[in-house]
Write a structure and sequence with these properties.
By secondary structure, this protein is an alpha/beta fold. It has 14 helices and twelve strands. The longest helix has 24 residues.
């Protein structure tokens, strides 16, 4: 496929863009290629560059953009390379394109910024940023234009950042459907240590316990353990770099988590000790309170109720369930599916607004659906 095949998709787009001119994307992995797909859908000229010719050609073949040319004059440059070379690429791009605004999407913000300042690089037109989006699988083959929709996109400005540069980077986030949030690099790195980096370690360490587990034990695994360990499929090579670059904030959270786990372990070693059961109960209760603070749908703290419906594992059943809920004027706020090994049915956990809970249950039962359970979120 030639570079010119990208033109029809740009020409057919009807979506307006806040970003104009050419956007140069350096690095055509998951994030770089996904940004390319999303911008091209809005008619933006996307020029791709990568040190790997094979990776570059793959991203072009999938339609993420065209190959960069020597005569390109980009207005915006997005650096989407591994953390250990982010500072090097930012420095190179700032020098090669002094008229462009340069941002990066690395998951750690303080280390590359400190490195660049130490080198004496003019950072007037550099703004660090980080979309809180991704998938377990990487590479251009896994790229999708919609992975940024509704997700936070952290923008790290400073006092010297020109307003027009800030508007361009925030415009990029908005074009991709993300929600720009301004933070300092320090605030960002502490935040992602808690909500992203430590959860990755916990999921990986827990999943690692499955290696020597008996097959009979793993056959009992339900949706809970799958949810807890879903991100354990992430690439080790990338995470070694991320965790190395954000080591101090991660260690701080891990130390506190280790203390919490040790306290529960001490209580369970002798549950008859006065206060032991209370310690366990309060640990669970703190988890309840912590989950309540997580933003729900549309970033709200609003909670929903769940109806768990048994769905036969046959063609069209899930569509019929949605159709019946639509007829009942019940909006599906969220959905989770669970399958048990060997069972000929699945469990569809439907999240609904509390005010329609009883209508959903009664209406579904009238239509022949079996309600497995109901829960409060």
């Amino acid at each position: 496929m030639s570079d010119s095949t990208a033109a029809p998709a740009r020409a057919s787009s009807t979506l307006a863009s806040r970003v104009h001119g050419t956007v140069r994307i350096v690095g055509t992995g998951l994030l770089g290629a996904s940004i390319g797909h999303a911008l091209r859908a809005r008619g933006v000229d996307v020029a791709l560059a990568d040190t790997s010719p094979a990776q570059l050609r793959l991203a072009i073949d999938y339609g993420a953009g065209r190959a960069a040319r020597d005569d390109d004059m980009p207005t915006l440059i997005v650096v989407a390379v591994p953390p250990d070379v982010t500072a090097d690429v930012i420095e190179r791009e700032l020098a090669a394109y002094p008229g462009a605004v340069v941002t990066d999407v690395a998951s750690v913000k303080l280390e590359p910024l400190t490195d660049l300042r130490t080198r004496g690089v003019d950072l007037t037109h550099y703004i660090g940023s980080h979309p809180m989006a991704g998938r377990e699988r990487g590479g251009a083959i896994s790229a999708r234009a919609d992975i940024f929709i509704g997700r936070p996109w952290v923008v790290c400005r400073d006092g010297e950042t020109p307003a027009s540069d800030l508007a361009l980077v925030e415009g990029l986030a908005l074009d991709l459907g993300a929600m720009p949030i301004e933070m300092t690099p320090e605030e960002h790195d502490q935040a992602v240590a808690l909500v992203s980096h430590v959860p990755q370690i916990v999921a990986s360490v827990l999943a690692g316990r499955f290696i020597d587990a008996p097959d009979e034990s793993l056959r009992l695994a339900g949706q809970g353990v799958r949810d807890t360990t879903r991100i354990a499929a992430s690439a080790p090579e990338l995470w070694v770099q991320i965790l190395d670059a954000n080591a101090a904030p991660v260690v701080d959270v891990l130390d506190k988590l280790a203390d919490d786990l040790s306290a529960v372990a001490r209580a369970l070693r002798d549950p008859e000790t006065p206060g032991a059961r209370r310690a366990v109960a309060e640990a669970i209760l703190r988890g309840n309170e912590g989950v309540e603070r997580l933003p729900g749908k549309h970033g709200q703290n609003r909670r929903f109720e769940q109806v768990v419906v048994m769905v036969d594992d046959t063609s069209g059943q899930l569509g019929r369930l949605f159709g019946d809920l639509g007829d009942l004027d019940v909006n599906v706020e969220d959905l989770r599916l669970e399958h048990s090994p060997g069972a000929q049915f699945g469990l569809a956990e439907i999240s609904v607004a509390p005010g329609v809970m009883h209508r959903a249950i009664d209406g579904l039962q009238d239509r022949g659906w079996k309600i497995a359970s109901t829960t409060n979120d």
